[in-house]
Write a structure and sequence with these properties.
Helix content: 40-55%
CATH superfamily: NAD(P)-binding Rossmann-like Domain
Order of helices and strands: HEHEHEHEHHEHEHHEEEEH
CATH architecture: 3-Layer(aba) Sandwich
CATH class: Alpha Beta
Strand order of the largest sheet: 3-2-1-4-5-6-7-8
Strand content: 5-15%
């Protein structure tokens, strides 16, 4: 299936039309609301067995019931997990049994107005958006490798086990500051901290794609687009949201449109061998080079530093130490 027909306007339902995910085991973090819930819904309606994770299990239960009301045969469950709490992440990862074919690292926090720390003492956006997902993926590496082997033997619909790491256009605001990740010495800035965490999400996909290629696991990063109908932007001042909307070539996306790029990268057969890339509007993005004087001013594209293999390797090794 070619991805050329997909675009900014594509919805998640359109992206998955005609795809049969029967037998696929999928995890969607942050699947209890917003684009995570929509992603989980369309995966389940395509036949996947979906596990939602989130801090709010009650909200997740409502999503499960809504999906079941639409299709009684849909297989969906919710499990509580707090990505900012590494003990919670480890407990979930170690409780998983059997193969895993699809991991969508969707959950996140954005623009926390004041510097906050995780239980392990790390800046909360970096801890939640990157370190929690890093810990989860490494805990589930064996399950993903098993899912990849199963897919190869059975000629499964995904071709490989796939990881989709949700980043953001916000990554254009900041590289990872390896000398001060937790804003201990530099002034805390909500959007710089968010941008750093979103660059980390891309770098994770780049390095996971390299390290786990021989295991049959692919990893890619996606930008869902600017979406108002989610809880993610609840900390952002209205004037910043308006500026984000004005900087985009089109208006804010719906939740269905916002989930589409995740679904395309997770399920399109044409992308089964693609790894370590960044997608937006259902297409692979152009790279913004180091000579560009205004990387943060671009309405789209992926910054060169987010795809840099040396940075990706450095972040991986640092992340292993931070979660140890």
């Amino acid at each position: 299936m070619s991805t050329e027909k997909f675009s900014w306007e594509t919805t998640a339902e359109e992206a998955i039309d005609g795809i049969d995910l029967t037998g696929i085991q999928a995890i969607v973090t942050g699947g209890t609301s917003g684009i995570g819930a929509e992603t989980a819904r369309v995966l389940a309606l395509a036949g996947a067995e979906v596990t939602l994770t989130g801090r709010n299990v009650e909200a997740g239960g409502r999503i499960v019931r809504e999906i079941a009301a639409r299709d009684a045969k849909a297989s969906v469950r919710v499990v509580g997990m707090d990505l900012a709490d590494l003990d919670s992440v480890r407990a979930f990862g170690r409780s998983w049994t059997g193969p895993l074919h699809l991991l969508i690292n969707n959950a996140g926090v954005m623009a926390l107005p004041a510097r906050m720390l995780s239980p392990a003492g790390h800046e909360l956006q970096f801890a939640t958006n990157h370190l929690g997902h890093f810990a989860l993926a490494t805990e589930l590496h064996g399950a993903l490798a098993a899912g990849a082997r199963e897919s190869i033997v059975t000629d499964g619909p995904l071709g490989h086990a796939r990881i989709v790491s949700l980043s953001s256009r916000g990554h254009l605001r900041s590289d990872v500051d390896f000398d001060d990740i937790d804003f201990e010495r530099r002034p805390y800035d909500p959007m710089i901290a968010y941008g750093q965490s979103k660059t980390a999400n891309v770098l994770f996909a780049v390095e996971a794609a390299r390290r786990w290629a021989d295991d049959g696991i692919t990893a890619n990063a996606v930008h869902p687009g600017a979406i108002l109908e989610t809880n993610l932007s609840r900390h952002m001042p209205p004037e910043i949201l308006q500026a984000i909307g004005a900087s985009n070539q089109q208006a804010f996306k719906t939740v269905g449109q916002g989930a589409a790029t995740s679904v395309v990268v997770a399920t399109a057969s044409a992308l089964s061998d693609i790894a370590g890339a960044y997608f937006e509007d259902c297409q692979r993005s152009e790279v913004i080079g180091p000579d560009d004087p205004d990387i943060a001013g671009h309405p789209r594209g992926v910054a060169y530093y987010a795809l840099d293999q040396d940075r990706a390797d450095r972040l991986w090794r640092l992340s292993e130490r931070l979660i140890a």
